[in-house]
Amino acid sequence: MKKFLFILLVFEVALGAAGAWAQETKNTPFQFHGFFLGITTGRVTGKRPPGGNGSDFVLGEERLRLELKGATPSGEAFFLVKGDGFHDAVANEVHGDLREAYAGYTKGPVDLRFGRQIVTWGTGDLFYINDVFPKDWESFFEGRPMEYLKLGVDGFRTQLFSKVLNADILVVPFFTPDNSLSSERFFFFDPFSAAPNRIETKPELRYSNTESAIRLYRQVAGSDLSFYFYRGFWRTPSATADNLTTPTTVTEFFPELFVYGSSLQRNLFGGVMSLEGGYYDSRQDNDGNDPTIPNSQWRFLAGYQRELWRDFTAGFQFYGEIMDHYGAYRGALPAGF
Q1: H or E segment to which residue 85 belongs
Q2: CA spacing 20 to 30 A to 146: which of 48, 196, 241, 290?
Q3: What is the dihedral of CA 326, 328, 329, 334, to 10 degrees?
Q4: Where are the alpha helices (DSSP H) in the chain?
Q5: What is the C-alpha separation between 297 and 289, in angstroms, rounded?
Q6: What distances in angstroms separate CA 58 from CA 4, 16, 54, one per listed residue?
Q7: Closest Cα partner for 156 from 101, 113, 121, 119?
Q8: In terms of Cα–Cα distance, which of 220, 218, 230, 256 is closest to 130?
Q9: Helix, strand or coil, per DSSP, at residue 314
Q10: Domain boundaries, the chain
């Protein structure tokens, strides 16, 4: 496969920072925030994705953020609505993006939230093991701010706090996949690029397909120790073709997935050390002999970061994956793969 190298130049202008304007209405419990953001990302090599839109620009947009939040005088009941409206100058289209929209109630050791919310678990920096929630990789590589890498999930979240153990529990009935890269704007390998028809099949909206995730955590001997469990689906689709030689229809689907993991984080030598691991149990390919479904795998991460001087932090991470049944995977690959 011919390799292409391209460099993205990203220009961002924000009129103020997040919270370029903020208004707290007198005598009401509401707060209103917003900002304007303009971004342009261009190629500098002159190469463009074959079959793409033919533009020298990966991204060009003007984005308006509006955020409304409020709470009762006691602070026990609260809500947040955060959304963007933006103009995509490359495609000449206008879109809306509801980032978060939830209502919540907190009382003593219990915190409840219902609606669309962004959840972040784990210790990695751009390496995700137990953070199994959806990501927007297209936004990340297009050059949007880091907050746009995370996508919200629509579900119910319960947080329980005690002196012995804390729990973070999520129930998500509506599946949200990762937003993967598109050949319209990016170079990437697609073994079925010639197929004229593509069908995406998401998990059916059934009670049995409801995603669930739990994090149990507490401090032990000065360390933050967490255990994780997730029941759901791979966020990146697998694909199968009607004909491997001359495919006409490619069907993308999301296989079942369980994840078991743990993490530890503590202060060490003036910095922060992180250890994290997880087992990805691919429920529909236990033997590893189905090349269309990812094999089960172990993932692990070790990291350390330290502030060397004011506003300057250095860190490193070591990340690895070990695939189960690798021999079966190699043996099941079709010719040419």
Answers
A1: strand 77-88
A2: 48
A3: 150
A4: 137-142, 326-332
A5: 14
A6: 15, 24, 10
A7: 113
A8: 230
A9: strand
A10: 1-103, 108-337
* Residues 285 and 257 sit within 8 Å (Cβ to Cβ): no
Which H or E run includes 80? strand 77-88
Model confidence pLDDT, tens digit, residues 11-20: 444 444 444 5
Residue linked to tokens 């998401």 = 202
Residues 6+ apart with CB under 8 A from 257: 132, 230, 232, 233, 234, 280, 281, 282, 283
At 22 the pLDDT is 59
Give pLDDT, residue 6. Answer: 37
- Residue 194: other Cβ atoms inside 10 A: 12
Q: Which 3 state secondary structure label does DSSP give 329? A: helix
pLDDT on residue 21: 57
- Token look-up 């001997």 returns 221
Mean pLDDT of 116-126: 96
Beta strands in 89-222 (DSSP E): 93-107, 110-117, 153-160, 166-174, 197-201, 211-220
- Type of residue numbered 176: T
Question: Which of residues 336 and 188 earns the better pLDDT score?
Answer: 188
Question: In this predicted model, which residue has the larger pLDDT, 140 or 196?
Answer: 140
